[in-house]
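Hi L., both proteins are below.
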Amino acid sequence: MNLVHARTRDVDAVTVRPGRPLAGTVRVDGSKNAALPLLATAASLGRAVHLSGVPASADVQRMLGLLEQAGYHVAHPVAEPGAVVITPEKQSSEAPDLSDAGRIRASYYLVAPLLAAYGQAALPWPGGCQIGDRGMELHFTVYEAFGDTVLLDDTGYRVLAADQTRDKVVLTLPFRSRGASIAAICRAVVAGCRLELGNPNLSPETTGVLAALRSAGWTAHAANDKITLVPPPGVPDGSVAWTVPGDKIEAGTLACAIAATGGEGRVEGIDGPHLKVLADLLDRAGIPLTLSPDAITIHRPRAVSGRPLRAIASLTPDGLDADFEPALMALALTLPGTHLFADDINPGRHGNLLPQLTRLGAVIEELSPTRCRLSGPQRLSGATVKATDIRTGSALLIAGLGARGATTVSGLDQLRRGHAVLPAKLRTLGADLTDVPR
């Protein structure tokens, strides 16, 4: 970990003050949401995998530690910051105690690596931020489709691998769950069997895993209604190299921060087309974005349109990623019009975010626990607020950039779970942020 990342651990809060419009160029880190499934896939593959672009965010670093506890060799090449090499090692007969896995929500990605190493997985219930149930029932349905046995108790769950591997597994998901889709893919990799997965999640995080497997010799096809995965012939050997893509959520958050201050800037290291849905929403509101293969450019707002933002989170292939919604809500507080927001995917998220925005003086009408609307622009006043989850933290930083007076955002440990140094990136763009030591 570099010195900048190490220093952030000594900071519990940051004070945000309004200032000039943000401007400049900044580069995103690797994506937490993409890195976690790629790490699980790498550990499931049974071969050495060189993974570059691994972010220093806390959840990803904790996952690396958990893989080491599970008996995998995790090397950090000195000459390649942000790179790791995951290698399977001969395991003992007894699976390790991974009770620390309860500190992250994506701990369920450990099931396939544990099944590959020990033939069983014992894990606590997912933890991390409280934004709703993780829907583990669908994951259990996936494992049962492979013939595995699932056992539950109050502290967690166990998955016991089937005695006999199936040549082919056919499964249709009731909804497009990213976690369950990747669980099915990784389980097929461990079994070395063919998979036909209906109604899959087709987000870039899922299709990125499929692209990685193609480079390892698997045949993978993704259509709107089905993913087909076929193992390579024989037993492949040799290492493979994958790259974690840039963080589209961090890019979108920075774009919203720039737009909220009426600024202009360029965010690099991100596949621009992955932000098309977000860009379309902002363009409708009078904030033009240019998308390119390795960057997005946020231009100064046109004459404000007054058109409402409709930020409705969706799991459909062309839908809005739920993690964009909080940043868009903070931006909407600066825009004319009446704006609608909905996140039925993470039913506890609004319960975290709305009370904190209200402390800044925001007036938001709750239509249901997962839906709300607000009219803008609103004039916020600085206050002390808390990042109760990753996306609430980033939204509060954006809101603080336009509030009168000083806004102190505490709970940065939650923010660092997904973004190692987001405040530093905002400073690069000219934001007035002051660290508050622990």
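That was the first. Here is the second:
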Amino acid sequence: MRTSAFLYPWDVVGDPDAPARIADLGIQQVTLAAAYHSTRALTPRHPARRIVTAEHAAALYPPDAGRWAGRALRPYPQAWTASDDPFAEAAEALAGAGLDVHSWVVLAHNSRLGAEHPDTSVVNAYGDRYPWAPCVARPEVRAYLVDLAAEAAVRDGARGTELESCGWYGFAHLHAHDKVAGVGLGDAAQYLMSLCFCAVCRAGYAGQGLDPEELGAAVRRALEPVWSGSGSPDAGWEAVGKLLGADLAEATLRWRTEVARSLQEAVTGAVRAAAAPGFQVLLHADPAPYRCGANVGVDPEHILSVADGVVLPCTGADAVREAVLGPFAGAPDAVVAANLTVVRGMGGSPDTLGRDAAHAASLGANQLRLYHAGLASDPDLAAVAGALTRLG
């Protein structure tokens, strides 16, 4: 089974041993970050450092000045990797070790953008802004994301791309010093807290026959049992309808689905227009259309008519893989990649990689993604290499 490992350019730049070490895992491909959100990352094997602090979302390549001239929304350059073009330098080194390179592009997740341009952010039913979550219904945000995708995906040395957060982002966010776990939020509350009430979305709800003021009030009423502790953190779309009412829930989802689909169509179209024939375009996705975040909710039939395939979150129990892979069964011409975390400290299970990969394959997965070769410890990587050898 074709396998790719995620990497950051800073895992490779400045470490001449990194490409061979990664290739020796038994993988065929690297999914290399080209545009990424802010993060603090370990580099446990780098000869010069142990920590990289990416202070804000950035392009990990030099953005085209002509493309972005005069535009308020534009990608921020990086300053934490000592290279004029970290992506290109890392891609060249990895290709020299015999690895295919695909770009990894994070789109609707950018805290600096929201801090500097607050009107671009998702606004919840209480009027709180989420600076990490650009509202993908806003025309200026969509234009920015489409051009960012085309530029960041089609880099020298990349034979394809994987697009993360290509849709709605919402409440859930691994923020610095998070203090949001005091109240348990199930699927339904997460969805309601992720509904956007900016001016564009309010107009969108009106187009669905809803009064935005009444909808906002309904959302706040629906959430009251959650704040009082008397609600149940139920999972699944039925739980959303139970809290908000089925008709209101379906109307909000129609608006959000329409917005997300049109963004995905525009983004993939722009990437294909910028790329050579045969350039592969995959989306990080979840088959539950109401979900938002890194793995955006999609309709399987629609997304496979737009992209060449999907990368699906498959870490955890068998039921997790069954839920996300099942709806994509019977798509022989598409890439269905099972994404498995292999870093123990991040909830991964490298020791069961062989078993989990075989289970994913039995459910229709035809490729693997391993998160994350740069963050994993030496024992984690040893377990990965052993599992891939046994898988053949």
